[in-house]
Design goal:
The protein is of the alpha+beta class. The protein has one helix and six strands. The mean pLDDT is 86.
């Protein structure tokens, strides 16, 4: 079942789906310490909110592949 929630952006969630997510900084770049903090935060969410299949944290953007847990999180697209 596809759940669509409307807020400032549409939020779509399809049960048992795997999502590729990317986001970037509005301005500037992450330094090495910030890259480690972001990556640790994403990894810490693994098995709590989602199954994490891959994460890449670059200086200007982040890419990840996740599968939300049944109790779920909203995916912003």
């Amino acid at each position: 079942m596809l759940n669509i929630h409307k807020r400032n952006l549409p939020h779509w969630e399809l049960a048992d789906s795997v999502y590729y997510i990317t986001f970037n900084l509005f301005e500037g770049k992450f330094n090495k310490e910030e890259i480690l903090i972001v990556k640790k935060h994403i990894i810490d969410g693994n098995n709590k909110f989602y199954t994490l299949y891959a994460v890449v944290v670059m200086s200007t953007h982040v890419n990840l592949i996740i599968q939300p847990k049944k109790e779920g999180i909203a995916i912003i697209v």
